[in-house]
């Protein structure tokens, strides 16, 4: 895993953990809790299209922040 991937995993995880909403990352046929750094480390290894499902009381703010986190690291995401 390169330094860029590590930075992306940590940034996305920290961003997700700022919110109470459920944030699920779907990639490669898997659904991973974005608040799980271990799950992210297995899911963000390739440059593919990711899908996020966000539900909860702060989902609007979480959606904006998560999209920004993915874009910061050049990762394609659909919400």
UniProtKB/TrEMBL annotation:
Coiled coil: none annotated. Transmembrane segments: none annotated. Residues 2-70 form the HPr domain. InterPro entries: HPr-like (IPR000032), HPr-like_sf (IPR035895). It holds the Pfam family PTS-HPr. This is HPr domain-containing protein. It comes from Paenibacillus cineris.
